[in-house]
Every structure is written in C-alpha cells, then in structure tokens.
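Summary for the lay section of the report: proteins are chains of building blocks that fold into shapes. Here we show the chain for LysR family transcriptional regulator and then a coded description of the shape we predicted for it.
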Amino acid sequence: MLSSHRLKVLLEVFRTGSIAGAAKSLRLSPSAVSHQLARLEEEAGVGLVERAAHSLRLTAAGHRLAGRAQEVLDLIESAEKDLLAQARADAGQLRIGFFASAGYRLLPMALSSFTARHPGVELDLVLGQPHELLPDVERGELDVLVVFEHALDPWKAPKGVEVVHLFDEPQLLVMPLGHPAGHRPRVRLTDLADEPWITTFGTETPVSVLERAGALEGITPTIRCRSDHYEVTLGLVRAGLGVALVPSLGVQGAAGIQVCQVEGPKLYRRVGAALRPTNPNPALRAFVDYLRDASARLSVTLR
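The coded shape description reads as follows.
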C-alpha cells in the first residue's frame, strides 16, 4: 500500500522541481526526501524518478502518480476530519486569503453573515496580493483566496485551482476636488493625457493597467508616483498631486475627492474566489455562498 506521507513528498518534488526544493518545503533534509522517494518506488513497484549526477526528473509513472497525489491527500484529510467530528460546517477552521480592497467592505460583509450562522468556525485571515497567495491555495495552506484579475493584465490559475467568478468591478477616475473633468459623467483617458498620474505596479511586469490602457488609446501617461496602496493613491490625489484610476472597491467611502466613470478598453477587473474543488473542508462551500451573496449586494452599489 502506498504511504500518504511519501505521496506528499513526491507531490512536493513535482511542484518544486527538485529534491532541495521539496526538502525546504517539507522541512526535511535532502537525504530524507531521497530516502522517502526510494521507499515509495519500492511500494509502487515502478520507477518514479530518473536520477543524474546533478539533476532529477519524474518518469511518466511519477508524473501520473503526482497528478493523483493531491486527490488522495484530500480524501485522507476528509476522512480524518470525519473521525474528528469536524464534518459539520459549524466547526473546524477556515483559512481565507484576501487582497486589501476586498477587506474594506466585501470580506467584512461576507464574514459578518457567515460568523453569525457558524460561530464555531475558527477563522485564519491572511492579507496579500493574489499572485503571492495563490501558491498557498495550491498547496492546501489556504482554503479560499479572494482574488482579482485585471482584464488588461490577465493571469492563469495554477493547476488544480478553480476561480469562482463573483462580479466585474469597474475602474474609476479619481480627481482632486474642483478638477474640471469632475463635472462630466464620463471621461476618456485621452482627455487627461497631460495630467500627472498616480498609478500602480504591474502584476508580473512594471507596466500598470493605466499604461496598458493608455497604449491602446495612443497616449503615454506621465507617472508621478506608483503605489499598490489605495490609501496612498487617494491621499496624493486629494492633495492635488495627480489623478488616478482606482477600482471601485478601493474608492468606497473615500472623502475629499471627485470620482467619475472613465471610457476605455477593458477598464475593469474580475473579482473571484480561488479554491481547490477537491478541498474537503465543509465550511468552505458555506462561506463561498455568503461571499456570493455579499458580492451581489455590493455590486449594485459599484459605479
């Protein structure tokens, strides 16, 4: 019979691409990882890795077994939770990751309803950018991650991770009070080509969504500052140091600024919940239902 512990070792070798990487992730020595792989090959009766002097790669059988390992580990975790009487959604632990502006209203709305119904669930909340925390969902260290994806800067979810779409969130033009463009219901980026801008960093590259949108409109925005913290962006705009594109969630309740809709290609971001469909945590589905409900109520108020 195959050992679940050794299957986990094989899975980490597959994910990290090396014995050293798996050893670091599992907090084992490289020799211990090698030993566990050798024992797993004995149990499987087939070679799972090809070893060279300075490298290692999985065989075809190793790839197939690694692909099934997460399913096996999820089933074992589910059985263990049943034995520990944690199969009800009002007990156990729920590990939730989220990006900053989701923590202004979306996540609190969902958690308020969820905790009122399931007060016995222990919550572990982790703040971070989607690209930083998605590997934790893949590894099973987070149950669910509230994510965003800019239409102009898309990304692909890791294998085994599903993104449940919640709503589309528009980008809004944020200006200081008294700005002439603030009296218009809609503005194009080309109307503000000579303005200084406060913008973000890109997800995988230095190019921000503003710069991508500007390129499609034939302009190169003048960037005065870059910040991924919308409190900083709004503060600089409020002080008259520039204008900015900010997603609706980042503007909710902000005072001392003017906000209007902006016309342009794909100026919105998709908000969703990233999770593993095989995750056996019984509290997960209940929470996602509350997250859907909060999204429906909140999206009505977004401009």
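Put simply, here is one thing we learned. The mean pLDDT is 89.
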